[in-house]
Design brief:
five-stranded antiparallel sheet, Glutamine Phosphoribosylpyrophosphate, subunit 1, domain 1
Length: 241
């Protein structure tokens, strides 16, 4: 019975994740960078664009891929969990503890059989002078530390190459450019015509706080990505972008 629940859950769980817009998290020498593609806000609801990057604790960033409603529910859960931990211990919640708590919550829904599994994958990241940069991915199989984490766009082949890359010695200012380049590489001109890119970081430069990158850093990343694309993509691909 467990195996049948597992296979059904995995098939359902990955459906929206694979069809979702790309998102990425990279751990560098002095922090963590998050990047997503998200839908442009419409004129009727200018402040709503299905935000997929959030600050769930003062020093912990959160990003997800897949069903927006499920991801939003997970975001609310970890925010409440972080508040509860602070009320009980009078100190900030460790990122690993928050990831473990979220994983247990996700696994409970997946393996009960009578509950709908959450159709999204999540990543939490932080930086501190004691532990340094950390990334934890939460998914049905396991929760473990990562050097980089990529989901969406049907798991493009660039994932394998990016996962093999070592970013441990690269500062976050350069990683912002690498994240932007990856998101531009997997962008589909037709399907992503109404998409915009968002980048955030938590690092030594931000005092360990998670926040969106400044506008000047964002523009530098966009310029780097657009200038580097002709070198990476096959000839003729850029004509469609």
């Amino acid at each position: 019975m467990i195996s049948s629940v597992d296979s059904t859950g995995d098939e359902y769980f990955n459906r929206n994740v694979n069809n979702a817009k790309a998102c990425v998290a990279i751990r560098g020498s002095d922090g963590v960078v998050f990047g997503i593609q998200t839908t442009k806000p419409c004129s009727i609801y200018p402040n709503y664009a299905g935000e997929r990057i959030a600050t769930v604790a003062d020093k912990i960033g959160f990003v997800f891929s897949g069903s927006y409603s499920d991801g939003e529910a997970m975001q609310k859960y970890v925010i409440e969990e972080a508040k509860s931990y602070y009320d009980s211990h009078q100190r900030d919640v460790p990122c690993f503890h928050l990831a473990e708590s979220l994983a247990n919550y996700v696994h409970e829904f997946k393996y009960q059989g009578v509950l709908k599994p959450f159709d999204c994958r999540m990543c939490l990241g932080t930086w501190s002078p004691i532990t340094g940069p950390e990334i934890y991915a939460v998914q049905p199989t396991a929760t473990q530390p990562y050097k980089s984490w990529i989901h969406g766009c049907n798991d493009p082949p660039d994932n394998a190459e990016m996962s093999k890359s070592s970013f441990d010695r690269i500062p976050v200012r350069q990683l912002v450019k690498e994240a932007a380049l990856f998101l531009y590489m997997v962008r589909n001109t037709i399907n992503d015509a109404r998409c915009i890119m968002k980048l955030s970081w938590v690092s030594e430069d931000t005092g360990g706080k998670h926040e969106f990158v400044p506008e000047n850093v964002f523009q530098e990343a966009v310029e780097f990505a657009t200038n580097d694309l002709p070198r990476i993509l096959p000839s003729g691909t850029l004509s469609d972008m």
